[in-house]
């Protein structure tokens, strides 16, 4: 365990709420294993205090910051610079503080892409996908799918206008992709489910502690030719994944995406690369998953 002293460098996570997060567990484990004089802390910032919270992180010289729900979009106006990919996506999940200048990055995109390839063996090109949600994680997921030549992409979201704004951006940047958008209307998603290859739930529905809520999609609409991904990882099997598995679909939670994106963030802050397999075993042992 690192002895905290005046030279200890602080890293952290901002979001609201943060009780579900395993980021402090994995980052502090890697910092200790690599003998780095750093500490990683959760900073739960309430929605009406985001501006003040970011200024506080700057003032306290927090070196690196992860950003989670619901601030991946909202944090952008308070940053000094954006990495080109984060700017393209329009969402930030990682911040680096260099001499008081905060620069935003998006490592969710690389984490999601690697998860599809390494853990599901899923090839994006020519496939058809449905994204649930239109927040920061959805932006990264959609960007990856469009960049890698998905054929057809649909978005459903509680606030349809928010989804339409996101779809408009993707249509402009990727005119070859057929993009559909709707509010969460059962008759809409039922009409397209049969031809979908991939479903990605980017919402916090089913996340601990509210694990018993009904999935966004009706349980009887899944089929065995689907890969269903829920970016929630706590609990490891959400209600949407249980429904999909019952229908014979391949399922995947967001744990490895979290780990892959965390490696990229860790490298950005420290220049060192932790072992994903060590993190994975740590989480299984500590959480009993």
Keywords:
289 residues; 6-stranded mixed β-sheet; Rossmann fold; alpha/beta; 6-stranded parallel β-sheet; 20% strand
Structure characterization notes:
This protein is an alpha/beta fold and about 290 residues long. The chain has 2 domains: about 130 residues, Leucine Dehydrogenase, chain A, domain 1 (Rossmann fold, 3-Layer(aba) Sandwich), CATH 3.40.50.10860; about 140 residues, Rossmann fold, CATH 3.40.50.720. About 40% of the residues lie in helices and about 20% in strands. It has 10 helices and 12 strands. The strands form 2 sheets. A 6-stranded mixed beta sheet has the order 2-1-3-5-6-4. Strand 11, helix 8 and strand 12 form a beta-alpha-beta unit. The radius of gyration is 19 Å and the shape is globular. The model has no long low-confidence stretch (mean pLDDT about 95).
Fold blueprint:
Elements: E1 9-15, H1 23-33, E2 38-44, H2 50-59, E3 64-67, E4 81-82, H3 84-89, E5 94-98, E6 101-105, H4 108-120, E7 128-132, H5 136-147, E8 152-157, H6 160-173, E9 178-183, H7 186-193, E10 198-201, E11 227-230, H8 239-246, E12 250-253, H9 255-270, H10 276-287
Parallel strand pairs: 1-2, 1-3, 4-6, 7-8, 7-10, 8-9, 10-11, 11-12
Antiparallel strand pairs: 3-5, 5-6
């Amino acid at each position: 365990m690192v002895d905290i002293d005046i030279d200890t460098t602080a890293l952290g996570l901002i979001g609201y709420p943060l009780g579900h997060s395993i980021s402090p567990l994995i980052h502090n484990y890697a910092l200790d294993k690599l003998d780095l004089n750093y500490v990683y802390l959760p900073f739960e910032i309430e929605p009406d205090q985001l501006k003040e919270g970011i200024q506080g992180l700057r003032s306290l010289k927090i070196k690196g910051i992860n950003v989670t729900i619901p601030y991946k979009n909202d944090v952008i106006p308070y940053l000094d610079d954006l990495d080109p990919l984060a700017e393209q996506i329009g969402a930030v999940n990682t911040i680096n503080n260099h001499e008081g200048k905060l620069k935003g990055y998006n490592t969710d995109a690389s984490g999601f892409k690697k998860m599809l390839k390494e853990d599901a063996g899923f090839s994006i090109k020519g496939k058809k996908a449905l994204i649930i949600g239109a927040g920061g994680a959805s932006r990264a997921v959609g960007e990856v799918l469009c960049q890698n030549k998905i054929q057809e992409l649909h978005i459903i979201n509680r606030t349809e206008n928010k989804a339409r704004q996101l779809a408009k951006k993707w249509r402009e940047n990727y005119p070859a992709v057929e993009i559909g958008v709707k509010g969460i209307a059962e008759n809409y998603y039922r009409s397209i489910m049969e031809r979908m290859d991939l479903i990605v739930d980017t919402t916090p529905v089913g996340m601990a502690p509210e694990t018993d809520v009904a999935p966004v999609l009706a349980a009887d609409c899944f089929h065995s030719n689907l890969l269903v991904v829920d970016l929630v990882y706590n609990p490891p099997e959400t209600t949407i994944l249980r429904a999909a598995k019952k229908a014979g679909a391949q399922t995947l939670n967001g744990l490895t995406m979290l780990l892959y994106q965390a490696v990229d963030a860790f490298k950005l802050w420290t220049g060192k690369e932790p072992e994903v397999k060590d993190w994975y075993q740590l989480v299984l042992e500590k959480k009993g998953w």
